[in-house]
Batch of 3 targets.
Target 1
Amino acid sequence: MPFALRPGKKRRASDAEYTPSSSVAKRIKMTRATRESTPDPQPDESDDVLPPSSAPASPVFWDENNLPIIDDTPIRAPSPFELDLPPLPASPSLETPPTSPARGPYTSPFKSSPEKVYGGRPRVTKPHRNGQGIRAQKQTQEWIDLKEAQESAVRVQANMLRVQEEKFAAEQRDQAKQNEIFDSLKRLTSDGTPMHKVFCEAMAPNFLEKWTERAPEAVDTFLSARVIEEIQHEGRAIQSFLTREPKTQVTHLLSSFDMKGLGSKLKELAPMLWDILAAASTTHNLATEAPETRRDRSLVFTTVCTMMSILRSQKANNFQAVIALFLLGSGASKREIEVFAHAGISLSYKSVMNYLDTLSQEGILQFRAVWRECTCSLVWDNLNIAFRVESQRLDNKNHFDNGTTATLIPIYNPFTNEPRTARGTLPLSMKPPRTSTMPTYSWTAADTLPSPSDAQKTEEGLIWQLKSIALEHIPEFAHLKSLLGPCPEVDQIQPHKTEQFPLPAMHEDESSLDGTITVINKLFAELQTTSEDIKKHGLVFANGDLLTDNLINTVEGSRRNSTDVLEGMQPLVRRLGIFHAKMAGCRLVVNEHWGKPNATIPGGLCWEHTQLLQRKPISAGWKSKKAAPWKPSHELLQISSAGHADFNEFDAVAGKVYNSLYTTAAYDAACDRGDAQRDAAFENSVLYNRDSLLYLLLVSSIKAGDIGRVVLVFRIWAVMMRSPKTMPKYADAFFETLNRIKSYDPVLQKFFLHNWLVNLTGLVFRFKEVDLLQEHQNFWAKIVYNAKGVNRSWSWLARITVCIFALRDAMKTVHATFEIPDYGTKHTVPDMQNEIQRVAEALEKNRIQELWPRRPWKDQVVRARDLFEEGANYLNTRGAFSRYTAPTTLYAIIPPGADAAQTNNTPNDKDDDENMQEDYEVTQEDLEMDDEEPYDMISSLLGTAEAMADKMI
């Protein structure tokens, strides 16, 4: 029941059934309108008070569906020392006063009542007070505890700050004392008298010792910082030294690489680092060990310095680039190169391929520059490669490709002894014009045979060769070896160093006329030469084997009327390859003196080869369909000739032995004894001694560089090879070449002869043939550096052929700088003393070297021909060398006792085709006879060519 209102008190708006007066209602409406139109003031960030309440002046009660929104967010950012506060406690509520039995429940604005006491509007069940009221009610015990914890944190922070300030003040006092001491020492060392400096130098070790005792960490820190600073300075110096200029050529890098010079320079640039490495690597045992038994520390220290340098900069890789090319040229696989690259010793495989490509481009630019600078010669040869395909298809089958490799060689000047000759020294006018299809010459038989002076020079050379063989292989004469002087000179080439510049390989077959023309045009195109340029350059010596010489001769004859210089092949001067001629001469001797196959009786090389030396059978003899291999034939002649040199006294009887056993006169004397008194075995031995000694004289003359003796042997072979069923093509080549040389200008003659041999080292007795040089390049390109499988292509060969000798030079350079024996065990000729002794004993036992008319088995011996006599008879025929004979009357020389009718017979046209052994393909065994070539390492290179081509194809 509603309670009675106190007298004099106005009714509230919440009283039931109360209607305010118009003035009161009007005032309420105005107040509400003002509140809605005026926005609540917003607090600033610096305010520390709650925003003013938006509640009306009079109490207002809210229902459950329209509760007031109270902003509890803090008005400022919490302090770092404030703790995370738990949620606020629940707002306290006033207890409902006890009910009065008389007056009923006590109605209060703080306690809502669901009942309508006086019939007014419903009571608010959960009344809320304003913000200030809520904050005021939060002063509970928990709130007070949190405040105390916060104040405690502030006090702890203050204590920490106080401790830090005290510590900082103490450090300042210590630093002031240190500065005072340092200033005193500084005044003593900087602006004192010279005595002060002497004092510091004398007492510095004591000072450092005391400081180390008192403060070892400080001294160590100072020394470490000082050493690190100095090491960094030395590292920058090493990096700068090992970093080459951007335009430095790889060729120059390889040629200038010197390990000893590099070590000396690094020691000069980084003395502290060098001393540290020396101290770290030296022990008491090493200090007392003999130097020759220790490893060369400078090489190791140099390698360590270069490894650290590449860590500073990838461009500081001079050492790594050389080692990488050395590994590549030595046959290291891709995996091995990558291992060395990760260790810092080499470059990566990809970088090596880039360097190889750069090296190839540099080689092309280099030989073009040489061609524009000096007079040069060319040599080229055919290169045959078999392409094998694992999975054959219609458009991809096994095939055999023919290509060509070539080399550019600067011409040596024999008049000034300069390795290069100025461009234009040999003008095109020096070469006689070609007037016929085949070159023709005016000659006589007397001019073709050796002159008396030539015969005397040849005899002197043969006697010297006989003495040399005896001193070399007869132990009793070994003490006289130093007394034997050099062979009598005829036309000696002065030692000089020959340069060679390989040209890119071409997929062109030069074994035909069209192929030869294409090869020559491509060579001049590769040299970027026009007809006007070739006029300024002058003549070009074209070297090659017998086939190349004949093809160039045919092209010259067919284009002799051309007005264009290049089209008419006017600058080319043909020059027969001496290496192929030497092999032909060796086969000439072996085939003629081979005897019966598998012979068991003395009297021929077959008996010595198979019965005495027990060698592997070879195909030899004029009836053989296959040419005799050169290496075993050459060794057989060396061993057999040494075994035939048998005499008691050296100098006194050497001439007598030569005249009785090594001359044509001795053979003629044996033949003039009549059939009953003749001894075929002895006669064969005399002819063999003469022919083999002539061949060995050629070999030694080539090695010594005496081109005059070489020409003398060629003159004799030109006659001997014209014997029936021998080697007429080589005989024609010798005849044509020697007569062509005589027709040249004397200056051109000397340039022709003195550039017929090359010397890659510049040392004495190191000459070799020009065509042999090209055969070596073919072998390295075909066998060693050629790719395998799908990577095998002519584009790869065109790149690698330019770099072959550069890679080999890199191998030689690294081997020399590291003092490594050349390619492991150096190639040496095995001792032939046992074989020579066996041959000599057999010859003595069977009395081969003496005339024995009653020899029991002399009728079974196959007589050898006197090839010189047979060839001389050919010269007396009407058709002798008819293709090279000028249309003039020939006067034949008829030897005494010869048949005049025989001299008028023309030669059989089939002579040129009677022997098919003149085309011989050089093998690896033949090339291994050159001791300057590193063929001992071939086995380690054959399995790595495929990996080399991965990044360049």
Target 2
Amino acid sequence: MATNPGTDQQDVIFGTDTTDTLSGGFSSDRIFGYSDNDVLSGGFQGDGLNGDNGNDSISGGSGADTIQGGIGADTIDAGTGDDLVIASRTELDGDVVDGGLGFDSLWLSLWDHTTALTFVAPDPIAQSTLLGGIKVTNVEQFTIVGTSFGDTITGGRWNDVLSGGDGNDTLSGGIGRDSLNGGTGDDTLNGGNGIDVLSGDAGADTIRGGYGNDSGDGGDGNDELYGEAGNDNLTGGNGDDALSGGDGDDVLSGDYGSPQGGSDTLDGGSGDDILYGGAGTDSVTGGDGNDYVGVTIGNGEDTINGGAGIDTLEVRKLSGTFTAKASNLSNTLSDGTTFINMEAYSLTSGFGTSTVENWTTGDGNDTMYAFDGNDILSSGKGNDYIDAGVGVDIVNSGDGNDRIVAGNGGKDTIRAGAGTDTVTIERRDAATALTFSITGVTGTINDGTTVSDAEHYSIYAGSGSDTLTAGAALSVKFYGANGNDRLTGGKGSDWLDGGAGNDTLTGGDGNDTIYDEGGANTVDAGTGNDLVDIEIGSGTAANSVLLGTGNDLVKINSVDGLTAGKFTVDGGTGTDTASVNRSMGTANMSFVLSPNAVLTNGDVTLRNIEAVQIWTGSGTDSLTGGALNDLFHGGAGNDTLKGLAGNDRLYGGVGADRLEGGDGNDTLQATHGTRFDTQADRLYGGAGNDSLRINQGDYADAGTGTDRVYVDLANQATGVSFAFSNGTVTVNATTKFAGAESLEFYGTSGNDSVTAGALNDVLKGNSGNDTLRGGAGDDLLEDGAGNDKLYGDAGNDTLIRTNEIGTDSFDGGAGTDTLKFSLSSTMSVKLDLANSANNGGMAKGLTVTGVEVVYGSDRDDDIRGTSANEKFFGGGADDFLFGGAGDDVLEGGAAGDLLQGGTGTNQFVFHSDGFGTGDQIVDFTRGQDKLVVDRSDFGIAASGNPGFIIGANPTASGTGPQFLFETDNGRLWYDRDGTGNNYDAELIVTLANGSTHVSTLAISDFLFV
């Protein structure tokens, strides 16, 4: 006999051939009992337990456990958590399984059973004997692997996985999101309620989705698939299949993508359906709604009827001549496919072919893709999309707001017709210069292309020196590519991209976007609020930019920060901003913002610019802003940055920098991005509410206003000790600050001792044995590695544990203080506010006093309170929350939680639980405690109460949101739409008071917020 307790580590524990008592520790353990009658206990985390032979007693404890009793009459108590219990046919007899709290699953593998199986998933609340041998309670989900005979398997209320195996099986999912696989044989699958996945596999199967948005796949054989209610996705597979979508917007595929065709029958039913017959001779009926039917020339002689509604026929690999008839007239394609009642078309020629297409559609919203060839494409009154592809094409788009694309090849004729039309002309392969202009309503390109009645143009030119002029177009997008291009916008908001070369770009009216790169460029942005972005990769070519009227932004080398190019920018009128990136430079640069300012050694002249953003390089730079909001990045070197007026942002970079914010609410950072610069920076906030960040060796004078100083010493090994004040504070021998009203501190790797001030401060301890005091105000304190002491003091403070290693002491002090856990761990939170000696997991070694609010982790937490009034939030997973004495607020969060308010007037808070696992309250007292429901999360109107139905077996009434309470077991359900089909009822909570379930409930027991 062996007695083997686990440790705090992840253990693998083996028993012996005799009776063993084996228990896990705090981590996730694997425990094997072997032969004889063993006692296995899982512990606090998710464990794996296997009893093997013998009559074993297995307790999972908390956590998501995986339990297999093995051969013998086993007693299994899965405990709290979302547990999985596994058993095969030879392991069932005499077993007793209690899933406990949480969403628990039972996996029964019965493939070797010698007779047909009949299985009905039981209600989890009462013990049931299944398959003549195993007793089950508190199990919500079942995974059943059937026999080789004709099985009848029925799921329950939750998400079941049912597999029929061989034989002619009948599988029914019931309520929930179920997965059904018929296996071989002629099977009948019924999804029931919920979003189900049904697969018939081999055989002549019958599949019915039921309520919900289901997916059905018939597999091999001549199958029948019925989507019924919901937006379903049905695939027939190989064989001659019959598919019926039913209600909803369905997708039906006879054998679409399958290597073997079949003669399928598809009926979309009501709704806007998508139907593909695939290979074979298919019969397709759209039914009611606006349907979309797809065919491929050569796949078979299909018969298609769009039915009622505005239906679209997609034809792939279409070639030659096609003329749409009136929708009520039958039409025939080249492969013998006939169709009727189609109002719109999506036509695609064979990819890579050069046949001449002559297509004419009707007045629907049509789509045509002609690819190669000299095509004639004509549409009617709808809003059409026509891609003529490569070749010399003729496009007549008719009335409507059409989009037309003409590929390379040239000499296209495009007649856009009435409406607001957009024409895109692709000429990227052009090696000679293109010229585009508009006269009246006709646009012409010098390659012979003409466009009439278009309002918007996009033209992609090639490597020549192009001249593209917008004229009377409402808007244009011109792409010049290589060459010395001249692009001229018009009266709209245009997009001009000159590409490489020496370009001349004119924006005109509107809010234009202008890009250029390389060469000596001339830009006139014109009126409007424009964006000009010029990137020069090499050389010293001169670029001239006139922004004109409006509030404009010009960017110079914003991507790479190179020193190439020379720039003269005139902002014109308006409030203009220049963004100049010379961060790769090595020379000493200087700049003072003025009506005629020069970035010395940066080759940039700025005239009539009101605000600047400047990045300099490794030199010793001096930058001075103006009256508005400026941005300076000094880079490496000993820089001087002055913001003057406005809300400025000054970043020093590496080096001994001097930053002066001046007036306004400024942001000053000594290094910006690196903690390893220990050179002596000097920061002066000036007037306004400023933010100043310093490192080792720096000095900050916050100035007047309500200022905040950030002290980041994360790269320092020697600890510091200081108390915050509004005067001069000495952090260490070389680091000081003065004039600040609040503090953010990021500690050293040594032992720090820091006391904050009267406002809302942030103290983070890093490694080392730190002592952090928040002082007055609502402060945030983090421990870090080491043995730390955190004192919130006065105010509503937040204390955060970020490292589970160490012996820490947290004292919230006066006010309503919060404890949070922010760390990546395989363990969960075990916290007892009344006795810290019981703490474990993420709270191991933590002593807590003066805390009223606790947030758990995303694992299975155990949080217990005191006699004070407390708020506990469990977070994800299956938690146990105990309020103790006092008026407590408990919110379990996601998954199935065990809640115990204790004495006092308690509130239990619920958000809609989409998984439907439900919580359990073990001490709910009517007239004293309240169920708090979030209206928004539950989809309940801002005023008034939802429906409330009570009874032994309450039934939803109407289609509004409603709660249903079962008087014989204390279960409370919620249904968002009552008798509607879009939502299933979800189990919210099971109410008990001691060993007795709550037998009555009223709307007055709720508090809707």
Target 3
Amino acid sequence: MPNSIVEKANLRPTDKVLEVGPGTGNLTVRILEKAKHVTAVEMDPRMAAELTKRVQGKPEQRKLEIMIGDFVKADLPYFDVCISNTPYQISSPLVFRLLSYRPLCRVAILMFQREFALRLVARPGTALWSRLSANVQLYAKVDHIMKVGKNNFRPPPQVESSVVRIVPLDPSPPVRFEEFDGLNRIIFGRRNKTIHATFMARGVVEMLEKNWRTWCSEQNIVIEDEIEMKTRIEKILEETGNTENRAAKMDVDDILKLLAAFHDIGVTAALYSAEVHKADQFNPLAIFVRDRIASTPIPALCLIPDTSPHSPTVTDVNASFSFSLFYISRLFASRTLNAFTPRLQSGIVEDGGLLVPAAVDSTNGGVRKSVSSSRSGPHQATNMHLAPSTAAPSVRSAAASTTALAPTSSGTSGTTSVAKHLLPPSYREQLRLADALKILVTRSGIPSCILVGETSLAISTNHTWLRPVLWKDALDKLFAAEHLGNFVLVRSTRQKIFEIMPLYTRIEGLIYDSTDRDVVRGQIASFINTYRIDLTELAQPDLTAYQTFNEFFSRKLRAKARLPASPMDPSVIVSAADCRLTVWPTWDSARKIWVKGRRFTLQNLVKSRTLARALGSRPSLAIFRLAPQDYHRFHSPVKGLLSSITHIPGEYYTVNPEAVNEDLDVFTANTRSIAVLQASIPAKSSMTELRVVPIVVVAVGALLVGSINWERKRGEIVEKGERLGYFKYGGSTVICIFPEGVIWDGDLVQSSEEGIEVLVKAGEKIGTFP
């Protein structure tokens, strides 16, 4: 049984696993064989001691960390996968803790009492469809994967068990759980009654009325007394057609539509109690936010659009945070692309640990800060400049910006002492922190402490204040998990490095075809500075000769910059691009370790049954992933006759490893162009004789790719290493498919099996035909 559970998790060699309730370790030792690290949370110290003895002195010991305590209350580390033979008394708390924990795990394989498991996977209209079913299925995909009989346990329990797979939806639906759960508490209280009868039941209307009036009182909202809660509810049910519906048959979408109707008339606060409302204000994370702001050694705009700066709630923080991210992205755009910088209107400034109101001066673009010794005391105006101080149209928002504050010559005392702490930031620091800010708010629901806007402009390179408030190895893992960067291996040195895919690649690609000379110069210059482009290889070294940014992006290199290895040896295969490379002896090996999309089959990729048959059942393949900074022309890996080119329209999903490694069908869903080369390679029986085989080159468009362009035509002979085509702006991938039996270079095979891409250049030898 332990082996079956571990297999269902599809663990990767790089995974960090959280195990809840390991007991004596029967399941733990199987997980340790597959995963990089295991954190086991055990309530019973005696069981923890037994588990420690079991791995003591063995290689697995260094991969295991044991936490003794209550899982529900424990401070958890980062983890990719959760596996648990769940203590049945914490079944529900465990599920909801996993779904609310950030960052979300990739998958959870959990064993529960059979009845609880069946309620998790129940569907509308069945006897077990319940509030639990709806709440969990709002945030995750749940599958029943195996039954576990009593005889699998010693001593046998009184109940049957089942194992379920829970895959959290990422990103999570933008629905407040308290509202959704509050509605479900009501409608599932009498699940077989009509929704109208349920709401009109004794005590329900009164409860809603009480909740609503309490909330309005706390928010200083005037209630229209002439409109009764009963009338409001009847109107909602009638307009949504839910009068005769029953909760037992309503699916998640039906419940969401009903909740949306409550939103439309502004009474969702009636669905849950005043105690829940108050939790926001006193939430420990909200307090932590304030403490973190106060302890920051540099002045910052705190992104809280509230006139009561001493008591920001989590709701306040969230409301302003989304706008601050918009501002960060536009600020970045203005500094690198000469685009516009929106100007913010008001917010809260932190200065010397004191939170005070601030506003943007529309006359000069500076920040006017009103300083007072108390919330009701007199205000003193202080002018501060906003960097960069460029003219720009204003935008509607109450949020504060995330830009650095420093006093101008006209500023008064009280700010000069802190201004000296500002450091000139690098573009990479801006990008890392801006992307971290974006992800932390979208994944956490409560963006915890990354609310000191200054971090996007002037943070120390080691992020000393940032690291203590994130989980271990948070930044690099966070960026990788959110498609913001990846670990890759430099082939020549075997050095493992982390490549950042910054906010730059998320700016709409249309502007890159602009012919405005000033804009083009700014785009090219910032691109070169950001990615440290080697200009010595350019075929056209005069940067003013490029009419658009896209011309520079798809630039040609000097004729001898990418010479192919062994050009006269037909058995040698060379890299098709400057890229991050993974190689796979067979299609199945790629699917097992790297490409997890369920529709990733050869026929789905090439859209041709005939071509798929010609390549055989076990073709070899190489995946060349190009990042925005790479030379974006791709070359032929072999010599051959270009017999066909077929274009298949589709999407432009990211092809970063974390997307490819998930159940996302990015390669078979994306726009792609397929070329078939008829290549002459050595016959298996003789090194002197040649056989003709099809080699397929699939150019896959990805994030923000403008287009896929071919430089060669059908019917032409293409030499090994010659250019085939190019991509316009964005990330992209080339997949080359070869007949079965290609012998890939050993270092590439080893890295690929470890889940690490290798940096290679076009023309480098990567393998041979047998």
